[in-house]
Specification:
It comes from Cytobacillus eiseniae. InterPro entries: 4Fe4S_Fe-S-bd (IPR017896), 4Fe4S_Fe_S_CS (IPR017900), RnfB_subfamily (IPR050294). Keywords: 4Fe-4S, Electron transport, Iron, Iron-sulfur, Metal-binding, Transport. The protein contains 6 helices and 6 strands, in the order αααββαβαββαβ. It starts with a helix and ends in a 7-residue tail after the last strand. The radius of gyration is 21 Å and the shape is elongated. With 198 residues, it is of the alpha+beta class. The strands form 3 sheets. A two-stranded antiparallel ribbon has the order 1-2. It has a two-stranded antiparallel ribbon with strand order 3-6. Strands 4-5 form a two-stranded antiparallel ribbon. The longest helix has 23 residues. The protein has 2 domains: 110 residues, Alpha-Beta Plaits (2-Layer Sandwich); 88 residues, Alpha-Beta Plaits (2-Layer Sandwich), CATH 3.30.70.
Length: 198
């Protein structure tokens, strides 16, 4: 009996240890809300209270679970599903009881990530007229601009190719959600920790 009890205690201890590691684990490929500290610091500061989730008027902020490898209970945004709308008053930041989300006074302070265009998937780069990401960008003609040029193999038509200004893009993800191309989506927001492209 003593051996079985000890065995159960060991299994319980290992399960608790693994759960603690999952809760602590971050994911530098995930889009965090506006004002998030760098990932390691963010995970240390975030108390998983859910106040940012509750304050978001668009339900854009979701809470991580063990299946996503995001750190249980930490906030994230799935841009393709429901991007950040860059609220004027940033309620998610204002309700944060720690400095996990901080330092946002206007849209230009936001640094969630940077949009990246897959020119193979983007129909605009193939000569089809599409300006959806450009028109929907809250920083139109700043974060996304159009490079207009004559189509090389068709001198009677123009290409209206979107280009990203990486210095101006705040990574809200509205362009990703609005993209008319799917499988793969032609524009994605890469969280600020990720340096690679598609």
């Amino acid at each position: 009996m003593k051996g079985a009890g000890f065995f159960k205690l060991m299994i319980g201890g290992l399960a608790a240890y693994e759960l603690l590691n999952i809760m602590k684990a971050g994911n530098k490929t995930v889009l965090r809300p506006p004002g998030a500290a760098d990932e390691d610091e963010f995970l240390a500061l975030c108390v998983r209270c859910g106040k940012c989730n509750q304050a978001c008027p668009y339900d854009s902020i979701k809470m991580g679970n063990e299946n996503l490898g995001l750190g249980i209970g930490t906030p994230y945004i799935d841009a393709r599903d429901n991007p950040c709308r860059l609220c004027d008053d940033f309620p998610c930041v204002n309700v944060c009881p720690t400095d996990a989300l901080t330092g946002i006074h206007n849209v230009y302070d936001v640094e969630m990530g940077t949009a990246v265009i897959d020119t193979e998937a983007c129909i605009a780069y193939h000569g089809m007229r599409c300006e959806v990401c450009y028109r929907e960008c809250p920083l139109i003609d700043e974060a996304i601009k159009l490079n207009i040029y004559v189509k090389p193999d068709d001198p009677t038509h123009a290409v209206f190719a979107p280009i990203i200004d990486q210095e101006k893009c705040v990574g809200c993800g509205i362009c990703e959600q609005r993209c008319v191309v799917d499988n793969p989506v032609a524009i994605r927001v890469k969280p600020r920790e990720i340096k690679g492209l598609f």
